[in-house]
Amino acid sequence: MTHSDVIIIGAGIVGLAHALAAAKRGFKVVVFERSSYAVGASVRNFGMIWPIGQPVGQLRDRALTARAIWKEVAAQANFAIDPCGSLHLAYRPDEMVVLEEFVATTPIEDGSLRLLTAAEVADKSPAAVTNGLLGALWSATEMTVDPREAIRKLPPFLAQTYGVEFHFDTAVTAIEHPKVMAGGKVWTGDRIFVCSGADFETLYPALYATSGMTKVKLQMMRTAPQSNHWRLGPSLCGGLTLTHYASFAHCPSLPTLKTRIETETPHFPKWGIHVMVSQNASGELVIGDSHEYGLTHDPFDRSEINQYILDYLHGFAQAPSFEIAETWHGIYAKLPGKTEWIAHPQAGVTVVNALSGAGMTLSFGLAEEVMEVEPQAGRG
Ligand SMILES: Cc1cc2nc3c(=O)[nH]c(=O)nc-3n(C[C@H](O)[C@H](O)[C@H](O)COP(=O)(O)OP(=O)(O)OC[C@H]3O[C@@H](n4cnc5c(N)ncnc54)[C@H](O)[C@@H]3O)c2cc1C
What we know:
The protein is of the alpha+beta class. It has helices at 13-24, 41-44, 58-77, 93-105, 118-124, 147-162, 205-211, 254-264, 267-270, 303-316, 359-373, and strands at residues 2-9, 29-32, 48-49, 81-82, 86-90, 113-116, 135-139, 143-145, 165-167, 172-176, 179-182, 185-194, 214-223, 235-237, 276-279, 285-288, 292-294, 324-334, 341-346, 349-353. The protein is built from 11 helices and 20 strands. The structure holds flavin-adenine dinucleotide. Flavin-adenine dinucleotide is lined by residues 9-15, 32-35, 38, 40-42, 44-48, 50, 171-172, 195-199, 202-203, 218, 220, 288-289, 330-332, 353, 355-361.
């Protein structure tokens, strides 16, 4: 039987963030991941660190803490990170009104946020369609990573720098604190963190069944690398995104915008579509996404959803090539109405899940908070 201070189940971004937070505090950490490398939501996402989507207060602060940690670990673990910022582009008066209300009511006065005219957008972004553009919200805080690179490079970095021990191809099948059954062996840990993402069936299924948690399926696309080192600049999105992120929820004109979208283009709310585009260090454009809710999802993707996304994208973004090289979907855990789910099914065991569509944005910050409020973790 092998003992450690902290055992973590899952090597997605939530598990990795908790491994870092625990290891930085001097704890001996062991991580179990059932796949040979993480293949869940954490490698299937846009790789956007997106503080602008988080309401001012605890969540934006958490996102900014996470942003600072991303910058540190990217430098140390040697993966690309692009502090490219973001543009929310407005082509309709009701979108522009929401942006104006947002800026007027959002107390961010560090210069990272401002409205741009169409001419100023053209200076900042070679990709934004300026025909019919009324203006945009510029935010400097957004960054992109290639999740495939970052999530692959974090485990060796954590192992080398902090001595975190990783066991891949090792599913955890049962927990009875302090014991963990993993890969047919028994391990023990003072503190156990379950960061198992959209697997509600293996560990604590009864807890999950009563939690109200659901799973969200998102369709995504990626182009081949753009030619001649063309760069997108800031990540781009349009008016649909204003209806998606909680940071815009307080804007008085948002219901009017939502009603117009539902009336004119009901397929967008039907499939939970809002459209964003980012670019990774390889030059590929990452495009998405849709949102379908349920405990079991159709394993097959709908081509009409991808077409809706691309049609909307062409309204606000231009690039040398939008030829799609890959399509896929990802599934994340969500607890409706909540931004995360932290549960204690047994003394010594903490479940951290349901970061929904913001796990890349928030996990490093949330893990710092979890480790601070749970000082009993490790150190016997
Ligand atoms: C398409 C898509 C786009 C997104 N875009 C963004 C974005 O741009 N920005 C952003 O902030 N967020 C984004 N998100 C959300 C973000 O990806 C998720 O919030 C985050 O990845 C969840 O991380 P996780 O560690 O909980 O889950 P996962 O990444 O799924 O990791 C859970 C891991 O646990 C392992 N596991 C499960 N059970 C066991 C077990 N019993 N034993 C051992 N291992 C186990 C799994 O194999 C898996 O590797 C997006 C999500 C999707 C799907």
